[in-house]
Design brief:
Strand order of the largest sheet of chain A: 2-1-3
CATH superfamily of chain A: Phosphoribosylformylglycinamidine synthase subunit PurS
Helix content of chain A: 25-40%
CATH topology of chain B: Rossmann fold
Strand content of chain A: 25-35%
CATH architecture of chain A: 2-Layer Sandwich
Shape of chain B: globular
CATH class of chain A: Alpha Beta
CATH topology of chain A: Mth169, Chain: A
Structural class of chain B: alpha/beta
Distance between the termini of chain B: 15 Å
Largest sheet of chain A: 3 strands, antiparallel
Distance between the termini of chain A: 6 Å
Order of helices and strands of chain B: EHEEHEHEEEEHEEEHH
CATH superfamily of chain B: Class I glutamine amidotransferase (GATase) domain
Structural class of chain A: alpha+beta
Largest interface: A-B, 11 and 19 residues
Oligomer: heterodimer
Largest sheet of chain B: 9 strands, mixed
CATH architecture of chain B: 3-Layer(aba) Sandwich
CATH class of chain B: Alpha Beta
Shape of chain A: elongated
Radius of gyration of chain B: 16 Å
Number of domains of chain B: 1
Radius of gyration of chain A: 16 Å
Number of strands of chain A: 3
Strand content of chain B: 15-25%
Number of domains of chain A: 1
Number of helices of chain A: 2
Helix content of chain B: 10-25%
Chain lengths: 79, 240
């Protein structure tokens, strides 16, 4: 099973990288963009065929290591 | 006193700390590889600056799971003095030994320069040689020093006098302009509720001897040595 994990800053937390990209896009002429947020994308293979067990494991990975839940949130897909 | 300096893969201020505690302050120093599982015999512990694990994922996020960190947690819960400098502070935050988190600097730049910090609380074993409100000039060198915590935690650490250093002007005014990285409330260093764990972004080990033209950092490291001497009878490391 493959897990695809997205970690992003929670809304309301300043994202300096997102802001810098937003300004760069603006100066390139993309005038319709707003609220650029930068996150991380990770994928990994899991030796687990049971969907519920895999989900529990990925959730634990996110809580313990992959995201700092004080400022970040995560979502994942299992395939 | 026997000071342990923890060495993670990617630590790069470990030898500066060793030099100051050993050669400037005349203490014994033990370098502790991150795979060690015991801190027996040590009086105090330093988590030095650097780029542990390449700062991958988040600063300090992987180092906090190094084997030595279980021993550091135990050492701290037994009342042992732990000082985290820069990356060491980031590791203490990720490990939950101090509250909050570091975000990328507001400017996105890696900032390497002298800054001024105000000693907000001189009644701690890490600042006993400072005067309350004293302004220290100490260099910072980081890309992720933008301290953040939720409003409830912020109120709690302020109420409990856990904010030890705040970025300020050379005259001691805590202003937005004096804030190099966007840190909440200009916070440059905090301690835990019990008072035996301190994290700070500025590098006192880089300005602790006259030959370098600045000895302000020595006040903090020498305070720690004094604090350890006072605690010696119940010294946690030696008692185990």
């Amino acid at each position: 099973m493959k897990a695809k994990i997205h970690v992003t800053l929670k809304s309301g937390i300043l994202d300096p990288q997102g802001k810098a990209i937003e300004h760069a896009l603006d100066s390139l002429g993309f005038k319709n963009t707003a609220n650029v947020r930068v996150g991380k994308y990770m994928e990994l293979d899991l030796k687990e065929s049971d969907q519920a067990k895999a989900e529990a494991e990925v959730k634990q990975m996110c809580e313990k290591l992959l995201a700092n839940t004080i400022v970040e949130e995560y979502r994942y897909e299992l395939q | 006193m026997n000071i342990g300096v923890v060495v993670f893969p990617g630590s790069n201020c470990d030898h500066d700390c060793q030099h100051v505690f050993r050669d400037v302050l005349g203490q014994d120093v033990t370098m502790v590889w991150h795979k060690e599982t015991s801190l027996a015999g040590l009086d105090g512990v330093i988590l030095p600056g650097g780029f542990s694990y390449g700062d991958y994922l988040r600063t300090g996020a992987i180092a906090r799971f190094s084997p030595v960190m279980n021993a550091v947690k135990q050492f701290a819960s037994d009342g042992g003095m732990v000082l985290g400098i820069c990356n060491g502070f980031q590791i203490l935050l990720e490990a939950g030994l101090l509250p909050g988190v570091m975000l990328r600097n507001r400017s996105l730049h890696f900032i390497c320069k002298d800054v001024h910090v105000k000693v907000e609380n001189a009644a701690t074993p890490f600042t006993s040689l400072c005067k309350s409100g004293q302004v220290l000039k100490i260099p910072v060198a980081h890309a992720d020093g933008n301290y953040y915590t939720d409003p409830v935690t912020l109120a709690a650490i302020k109420a409990n006098a856990q904010v030890i250093f705040r970025y300020c002007t050379s005259e001691g005014h805590v202003t937005a302009e004096a804030n190099p990285n966007g840190s909440l409330d200009n916070i440059a260093g905090i301690r835990n509720a019990e008072g035996n764990v301190l994290g700070m972004m500025p590098h006192p080990e880089r300005c602790a001897e006259s030959v370098l033209g600045n000895e302000d950092g020595r006040l903090i490291l020498a305070s720690m040595v004094e604090g350890l001497k006072k605690a010696r009878p119940q010294s946690v490391g030696s008692a185990r």
